[in-house]
Amino acid sequence: MPKPLRKAVMPVAGLGTRFLPATKTVAKELLPVVDRPLIQYAVDEARAAGIEQFCFVTGRGKTAIVEQFDLAFELEATLRERGKEKELAELQAQALPPGSVLTTRQQVPMGLGHAIWCARHFIGDEPFAILLPDDLMMCDVSCTKQLADAYLETGGNVVAIEEVPMERVSKYGVLDIAEDKGRLVSVKGLVEKPRPEVAPSNLTIIGRYVLMPEVIGHLAKHEKGAGGEIQLTDGMAKLIGSQPFHGLRYEGRRFDCGDKLGFLEAQLAFALQRPELAEGVRAFLPNYR
Ligand code: UTP
């Protein structure tokens, strides 16, 4: 019986250079899509998968991320006084239970693999999910829940995957496929940011993972990979052969909110899902053709 999945790590220590100057003072993960910060979507998604413990890997200027999940007594009192019960209830529902949030610091952004290694004491000897909050998911069933179910089914590592045109594989971690069973793909190797002509496939890893704790031992070697960074993909590749490793074609859509166009598309897609906004958005859109 696989160990239950209770923990999630959310690396938020990146510099967000593609969103400067906004990210000079506001963490990329706090930028809102409609009215919710990116980090809030990720936490809600993890909670919908039964995650109970959260670790934010933060860096300088990122402390406000933790505030987002705390109680806000003065704000709550003011909302109560003004009779704004709906807003109050929503705010209170978003606070995480006492003791369920830890933070660790990645002093220098040395890569995603290094950020995960910084959470090693939180992870201990349990399986854990990773959510990169700048990948915003629109799924009927929480993407992390889909991965959690696949973990119970396979008893090992599972990463969310999607197909991209071959010319774009060099932005991603790419799967070397052992067997493609449709929904699940068993993996015999992983390559980070390969050139299209040497890429083993066009199945790429997005920012959602369920990993076994043994990956930490490999990341601890601090070996530099693509771009001179300590890559999570390289650490994960070392698990293959000793543990099950699968890609999951998740059901839903991903918006790359670390990128301006992806972020703008997410604003429209999420606004169109809101009954109180959809009509207004459809009314103004033709003005911009
Ligand atoms: P990105 O590759 O999008 O980097 O990181 P970035 O610094 O956030 O943004 P740009 O490219 O400068 O605009 C993907 C995820 O990994 C985290 C980021 O916070 C983001 O959630 N990350 C990346 C770290 O926590 N530490 C790192 O060293 C690198």
- How many structural domains does the protein architecture include? 1
Got a strand count?
Answer: 13
The percentage helix is: 25-40%
Order of helices and strands: EEEHEHHHEHHEEHEEEEHHEEHH
What are the bound molecules? uridine 5'-triphosphate
CATH architecture group name? Alpha-Beta Complex
How would you classify the helix and strand content by structural class? alpha/beta
Q: What does this 3D model show about the protein?
A:
By secondary structure, the chain is α/β, with parallel strands linked by helices. The protein has a single domain (7-284), classed as Spore Coat Polysaccharide Biosynthesis Protein SpsA, Chain A (Alpha-Beta Complex). The chain is built from 11 helices and 13 strands. It has a 9-stranded mixed β-sheet with strand order 5-4-1-6-11-8-12-10-9. The chain has a two-stranded antiparallel ribbon with strand order 2-3. It is globular, with a radius of gyration of 19 Å. It starts with 6 loop residues before the first strand and ends in a 5-residue tail after the last helix. The mean pLDDT is 95. The protein binds uridine 5'-triphosphate (UTP). Uridine 5'-triphosphate (UTP) binds at residues 11-18, 28, 57, 106, 109-112, 114-115, 132-134, 258.
